[in-house]
Amino acid sequence: MSTEASDDLTRSPHPRLRPFVGDYAGYDISGVPAGTHLGLPSGALTFIVAINQPLQQYFPEADTVESFDVLLAGLHLWPTLIAHNGAMSGIQINFTPFAPRAFFASPAVEFAHHSVELGDIARPIAAELHERVNTAPTWSQRFDAIDDVLLRAIRDDLGPRAEVVESWRQIARSHGGLPVSLVADEVGWSRRHLNGQFRAEFGIGPKEAARVIRFDRARKIISAGKSSLAEVAAVCGYTDQSHLNRDFRLLTGTSPTGWLDSDPIARRSEPNGAVSFNGTASQTSR
User: Fold this and answer.
1) What's the predicted TM-score (pTM) here?
2) Which domains does the chain have, with CATH numbers?
3) Which of 66, 124, 138, 246 lies in the 20 to 30 Å Cα band around 192?
4) For residues 194 and 188, is the Cβ–Cβ distance under 8 A?
5) pLDDT in tens, the chain (286 residues)
């Protein structure tokens, strides 16, 4: 597998973008067997600018492939398949659930459980991002280009209700460990009202958000390969290893060891989140 140093492949966005955007994570992979990579649920929307060749999303039910130059995938609760020929290159940008309003004047619910080609909803932004990222000669210049495009697109006065924002932040800060009833109490809503408002904004409920945020933390620790599954379960708030295994299978269709054994890209250590592809959602909703 050919890669570059992690320090060269990741960078934080401009400070004004940070309420909406996680780190920029470049990936340049070659030398792995051709096949499919399992994209897993997470607490972020996934935004990928492909380099050199489009990102290929495979749909086994129909045995078809969809291509994306600039992909935006919403929050989701099941895995997807990324087809590759042994080489992939691009930049993954993890969006917070508040980002679609800020950049595209649309709530995250409009992208939940599916992926879109950004050019279909924001053609000028998508075209400029793709051209500038693909023509820039260095990773640093690619990240500069993304900063520039997103800074000109941002509208930070279009956010959701304060209670919805705070409820998401509480769940995220607790790594999915805070009971929904306590979140509702903190924002002054009933649990039922919170669930309705939360789902209307993000496309998933607060309990589902807690599940995928906790899972994503566990997945990252597992991929680092330094902790036993029992230790991961304890650190991430699962009742035991069996609970971790059940949740993992529910969200991925496989076990933690099965995931690592079957996917050479997943086995790559990702201390800065690079090449995770998590959050890449299915093109069609279930």
Assistant:
1) 0.87
2) 6-153 (2.60.120.10), 162-262 (1.10.10.60)
3) 246
4) no
5) 333 444 489 999 999 999 999 999 999 988 888 888 888 999 999 999 999 999 999 988 889 999 999 999 999 999 888 999 989 999 999 999 999 999 999 999 999 999 999 999 999 999 999 999 999 999 999 999 999 999 999 998 888 999 999 999 999 999 999 999 999 999 999 999 999 999 999 999 999 999 999 999 999 999 888 999 999 999 999 999 999 999 999 999 999 998 888 877 766 545 443 444 454 433 333 3
E strands in the chain = 10-11, 21-29, 35-39, 45-50, 55-59, 64-68, 70-73, 80-84, 88-95, 115-117
Closest CA to 272 of 39, 71, 5, 87: 5
Q: Please give the radius of gyration of the chain, using alpha carbons only, rounded to the nearest integer.
A: 18
Burial 20-31 (b: 16+ CB within 10 A, else e): bbbbbbbbbbee
In 3D space, the residue among 176, 182, 185 whose CA is nearest the CA of residue 219 turns out to be 176
Distance CA 222, CA 112 (A): 26
Q: Determine the straight-line distance between the first and last CA of the chain, rounded to whole angstroms.
A: 35
d(CA 212, CA 276): 15
